[in-house]
Amino acid sequence: xxxxxxxxxxxxxxxxxxxxxxxxxxxxxxxxxxxxxxxxxxxxxxxxxxxxxxxxxxxxxxxxxxxxxxxxxxxxxxxxxxxxxxxxxxxxxxxxxxxxxxxxxxxxxxxxxxxxxxxxxxxxxxxxxxxxxxxxxxxxxxxxxxxxxxxxxxxxxxxxxxxxxxxxxxxxxxxxxxxxxxxxxxxxxxxxxxxxxxxxxxxxxxxxxxxxxxxxxxxxxxxxxxxx
Length: 228
Fold this sequence. Notes:
single chain, alpha+beta, L,D-transpeptidase catalytic domain-like, two-stranded parallel sheet, 3 helices, 12 strands, globular
């Protein structure tokens, strides 16, 4: 036989009733709350931040990195050539974009190394932004380690823009090596900084006349009177 503790039993019954009543109250509140109501304990979710897209490195090799004489600038340049003509001053490593009225925009350039310079008159037959590079067979024969193909981009040696000259293998293009501007280093192509070639590209059209002066035709260097 055991002794029934009436007081303890009553306390248990009271606690059970209170718990049941609390559950019913919460259920009622949940069923009557509007759908837009803020939950008492909102779920916390996380999402990865969107990746920022890298800007094209068209300003790689800016004018500030070049010696003063090689920076893009407007200079006095008397010529009979029509405005819009491009003149390559090979020995002085300058490219002139004729403005007319005795003026031109002068850009510093890199030109062909010894044995790879050339001269003549061509025209722009094609333009390309961030061009792919496929070295011609004669270049691969001299430098077998070169890739057979390289997609366009900041690491491509043709840089941000290219203007193709006639039916030749030569181009006016950008570079990922701005320190070579002002030197005789290429296999015959004319290179500018990415910032400068992008500027020239915006001015030049397909059909533009391009005059490439020979190494023996050295003319006086005209001091720039106004920077563009």
